[in-house]
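Morning!

This is the sequence you dropped in the shared folder:
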Amino acid sequence: MHRPADQLHIRHAVTDHHGFSGPPSSVCAKPRVFGPCATATRSLVSGMRPPPSEMDQYLATLFSQDLHPAKKRAAENAEVLGLGNISLSSYEGHLLRFLMRQIRPKNICELGTLTGHSALWLLESLLPGGKLTTLEKSSAHAELAAEVLMPRARELTVEVEQLVGDAVTLL
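The structure's back. Tokens below.
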């Protein structure tokens, strides 16, 4: 899942904790990571998802695993690329969509699209006629994402704009 604000917080927390240098974060004035969050932070930095906890396993039972074919394809593409460990789980996708629907967004910008898995959940939270703008550095990942995003956007009567390149220069 691509969460720019969380990534800034985690990056800063890791920067402070491990002594790496990096830009200061406006998201968290006193970054400290303890307990389960520290484990999750180390896992995110290493690119590995922590093993599912009992809570993860329980939450997974609460949500339907019957995913739209586009979501299944995006998840399969992530597995083929070796990126499955950073893809959203079903319950994380349901939670993301639920939270975004509370906001009732007309426009969403996602940084880092990969295979489009999280973007598909975001599409479902847009109001009709809404727009999702995705930024992806890799043209190969952007092509895979387009294969699942564009047809689903037409089904949902929303728009997708994909921008390929470095987000720092695109923004």
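Headline: The beta strands are 107-111, 131-136, 159-164.

More detail when I'm at my desk.
O.
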